[in-house]
Amino acid sequence: MTARYRKSAGERTTSKAVVAALNLGEHVTFDELLAAVTKTHGKPIELRDIDSAVIPSVTGLWIEKDTKSIILLPSGDNRLHRTHAACHEFGHILLRHQGCGGVDTTMPSLFQHIGSRKGIRRMLARSLAWNETERAAEQVAYLLSLALLPRERESPSTFERTFL
Hints:
By secondary structure, the chain is α+β, with helices and mostly antiparallel strands. Helices cover 46% and strands 14% of the residues. Helix 1 (9-20) packs across helix 6, helix 2 packs parallel to helix 3 (79-94) and helix 3 (79-94) packs across helix 6.
């Protein structure tokens, strides 16, 4: 792992702490995860499909308004990729990020013209530069994804267990 991608101890602790605070069980469904993040966020979170041509090169976009948050996900992406992108945006929400640089560089006119008229308080899109904010949200996404995966039962075979 290069220094550029190395995570600080504080960043890992914060990511782990926000996920631990959700009190997820060993395995949750996506709907249960969405409900837990919504409860922590304090307002509804709506997931919407959007044509990838509308937000090219963006895998997910969190839009926060006064009464709700909206996560836009490209409709052409496969389910696994969309789930991970949603978990990444949940990371921004749970870590209470105020910005990540992505919207400023990729869609400044969208935020300035449409956003202000529609009551949008904040928009976060994956930044083109892999910065500390993006790494922290991605760490949360990995931890949330683990909660979505069913746990494999331990093999009854002593021989098979030697390979774990």
